[in-house]
């Protein structure tokens, strides 16, 4: 397993090792001991245990996010795409952080097998880049209606560049379209 640090503290790209031959390939998509050892080697804290797995399927142009949960049930997420392609984004929402309001994005695909670790304190979102995109993520806490929050996906103060296919407008859930801007949102405080 290889970890690549991003410009956002604690957010890392995870590249599991895949072994392939003429029959196909095999990879260990999750191994707690190896993940924690790789984080420690990078000087990062290990997450609490993952307690929930989620799986979504989206058509091209479906944009989900920017979602997060506040304490007492903040969520860290380990995300990946197992079919299709998605542009995945983490946004630092830790008021007082040197990178507050900054974002990092990358394309996750079934072919590249990359994952993104997003610790608590970051909002998360993605847009499906092709039909029938299957997105899986492990979370460090269960979903909580009382702790759930969202920030507008198109907040100009954040300035995320969403790479939508030509002529395709994002399809956003009503609650995401009505989410507040970062300046007005309940966020983490350092």
UniProtKB/TrEMBL annotation:
Catalytic activity, as annotated: dTDP-4-dehydro-6-deoxy-alpha-D-glucose = dTDP-4-dehydro-beta-L-rhamnose
Alphabetical keyword list: Isomerase
Family: Belongs to the dTDP-4-dehydrorhamnose 3,5-epimerase family.
Subunit annotation: Homodimer.
Protein name per UniProt: dTDP-4-dehydrorhamnose 3,5-epimerase
Organism of provenance: Pseudaquabacterium rugosum
Taxonomy, superkingdom: Bacteria
EC numbers: 5.1.3.13
Phylogenetic placement of the source organism: Bacteria, Pseudomonadati, Pseudomonadota, Betaproteobacteria, Burkholderiales
Pathway involvement of the protein, from the record: Carbohydrate biosynthesis; dTDP-L-rhamnose biosynthesis
InterPro entries assigned: RmlC-like, RmlC-like_jellyroll, RmlC_Cupin_sf
Pfam families per UniProt: dTDP_sugar_isom
GO molecular function per UniProt: dTDP-4-dehydrorhamnose 3,5-epimerase activity
Described function: Catalyzes the epimerization of the C3' and C5'positions of dTDP-6-deoxy-D-xylo-4-hexulose, forming dTDP-6-deoxy-L-lyxo-4-hexulose.
């Amino acid at each position: 397993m290889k970890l690549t640090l991003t410009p956002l503290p604690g957010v890392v790209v995870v590249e599991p090792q895949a072994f392939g031959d003429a029959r196909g390939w095999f990879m260990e998509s999750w191994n707690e001991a190896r993940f924690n050892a790789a984080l420690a080697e990078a000087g990062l804290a290990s997450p609490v245990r993952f307690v929930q797995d989620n799986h979504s399927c989206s058509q091209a142009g479906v944009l989900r996010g920017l979602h997060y949960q506040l304490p007492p049930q903040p969520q860290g997420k380990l995300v990946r795409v197992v079919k299709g392609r998605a542009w995945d984004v983490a946004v630092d929402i830790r008021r007082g952080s040197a990178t507050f309001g900054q974002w990092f994005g990358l394309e996750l695909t079934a072919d590249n097998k990359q994952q993104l670790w997003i610790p608590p304190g970051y909002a998360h979102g993605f847009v499906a880049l092709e039909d029938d995109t299957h997105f899986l993520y492990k979370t460090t806490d269960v979903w909580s209606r009382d702790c759930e929050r969202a920030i507008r996906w198109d907040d100009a103060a954040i300035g995320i560049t969403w790479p939508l296919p030509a002529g395709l407008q994002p399809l956003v859930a009503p609650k995401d379209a009505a989410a507040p801007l970062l300046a007005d949102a309940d966020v983490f405080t350092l």
